[in-house]
Amino acid sequence: MKKLLLTSVACLALLCTSCSISQQATNNTNLTQTEVVLAKKNYKIVGQVSGESNQNYWFGIGGLSKKSLRESAMSDMYKNANLKGSQAIINVNVSYKNKFILIYTGAKAIATGTVIEFTE
C-alpha cells in the first residue's frame, strides 16, 4: 500500500511539471518603418515601452499564426506608448516564450521598444 501511494504521488508530480522555451526574434520583420537621420543630438529618450500577446493551444489546436502573435504584441506596445507630438518608438524587439504542459501549450510574444522625442 505504501509503495502504491508513493508511486501515485511520484506520477502525479511528474504530470504536473511543465517545460518552457524562450527565444528572441533576430530578424527585422517590423512593418512600421520610419527613416530618421540622427546626425546630431536632436532627441531625448523618454522611456521604455512594452506590450504582450498570448495564445493557447490544446492538443496542438487553437491560436493563430506566429505572425499574428507578434503583430498583436506590437499593437499592444503602441497602445501602451501613448505617443504624443514628435515622439517615436525605436529599437523594437520581439521575444517569444512557449510553455508546454502535456496537452496544453501556451505561447507568448513580448514586444519592447524605446520611446524618443525629437526636440528640434
Lateral strand order in the biggest sheet = 1-3-4-2
Shape: elongated
Q: Number of helical runs? A: 2
Question: Could you tell me the strand content as a percent range?
Answer: 35-45%
Poorly predicted spans:
none
CATH T-level fold name: Translation Initiation Factor IF3
In CATH, the architecture is 2-Layer Sandwich
**What's the CATH class, please?**
Alpha Beta
Helix % is 25-40%
Kindly give the count of domains.
1
Secondary-structure-derived class: alpha+beta
What sequence of helices (H) and strands (E) makes up the elements?
A: HEEHEE
Largest sheet: 4 strands, antiparallel
The Cα radius of gyration reads 21 Å
End-to-end C-alpha gap: 79 Å
Mean of residue pLDDT? Answer: 82
Description:
The protein is α+β, with helices and mostly antiparallel strands and 120 residues long. It has one domain: 2-Layer Sandwich (Translation Initiation Factor IF3). Helices cover 25% and strands 43% of the residues. The protein has helices at residues 2-15, 66-81, and strands spanning 19-24, 43-58, 87-101, 104-118. It has a 4-stranded antiparallel beta sheet. A hairpin with a 2-residue loop joins strand 3 (87-101) and strand 4 (104-118). The longest helix is centred in the middle third of the chain and has 16 residues, at 66-81. The radius of gyration is 21 Å and the shape is elongated. It starts with a helix and ends with a strand. The relative contact order is 0.27.
